[in-house]
Fold each of these.
Amino acid sequence: MNPDASTLAAGGPVELDLGKVAPGQQVVVRRRSRPVFVTHRTPEAVKKLRDPALLALLADPQSSELQQPPYAKNWHRSIKPEFGIVIGICTHLGCIPIFEPQPNPTSPAPNWPGGYFCPCHGSKYDLAGRVYHGVPAPYNLPVPPHHFLSDTMLRVGENPPNSNFEFGSIRQI
């Protein structure tokens, strides 16, 4: 699942067979030396992304800040609702958030709703990479250019045909 060194150095696209990623599972691929979190969201997780109680906790629930391509500016921040693709670098100071998808009353934070937790300074993101209110991180996790070559083959680092989103135009990595 990891590209060779020459692919990383060139910044070329990275492909991942999603047929091997079970619902509820996350895998990490690297592109341009950055971790890219690819999550196969369960139907329950997809449903929760639209829950008004969750949306009330988020700083940018409609993804108004430019942290994703236009084709991922939607309630699930991706092309397909069941798959989340985000750069796994906290927008506060660049730490790597931890994948904690299950709600928990005490860990990794009190009343944890599930999502991504940054252990460095406590920033929290939902499973679409949207940042919560009242945490140090100022922005949602960035969504890299990506598209599907088939129902199960994902290419990260390349826009869909007829799209020209430049990743460098996002607010913060």
Amino acid sequence: MPANIVVAAAGNVAHEDVVSLVARGLERRGAVERSQANVRPPLVQAPPPRLRFQRKDTEQYHVCLGAPGISRSDRRRFAASLLDAILGGSASSRLFQEIREKRGMAYAVYSFVSQYTDTGQVGVYLGTREDNLGEALQITAEQIADIAGGNLAPRELERAKENLKGRILLSMESTSTRMNRLGKTLIADSELLSLDRIVAEIDAVEADSVCALAASLLDSDRLSAAGIGPSEERFLAAVERVTSALAPAA
């Protein structure tokens, strides 16, 4: 539907030329005047925690813990990005170091954040063998609780800030990244910040803000869990080390 389309361009292009090309394309379809935007109603209330498991004869269990996050316009989004970097968003993050590097329990373990117009998501993924599943999830819960409890050293926060700023600045060397950034800003109806402003916002985040966000977003009572593996019983037992609030799906 043309009214739902956002066109973004970056690189050696002229704005007027892009507008002309898009207009001609839509006119050929004869849909400019007849179409209306299909707008999804904003999320009013976050869904309750859920539990899902798919049995499959895999060598490893694949587990994802997640919860509702924050929107693209929320000022805490910079703190959320730093929380992600500290928890599991890089090779120097806590989960990567504690679960993979120190104990060799998992090859893949990471955290993630996504932000949309009215909501977002935050969570953790890990893939590990059956004998490591419970302990790996327990370590995950302990690291989340440690950050939420205020145990974030200035050096750790500073390292995360430098990592995040470096990744953002390097990504701007990609034309496609610049294009996607423009398009996402239009779709989410959010402010397009300059790189200097983004760096300043990251530098302004304090440790207390990151810890408070961990306590708020990753509280065990908010977490949903999804898994794939040979035994649902093993999966449920492991998830109980993180949260007892989840009940098996009907």
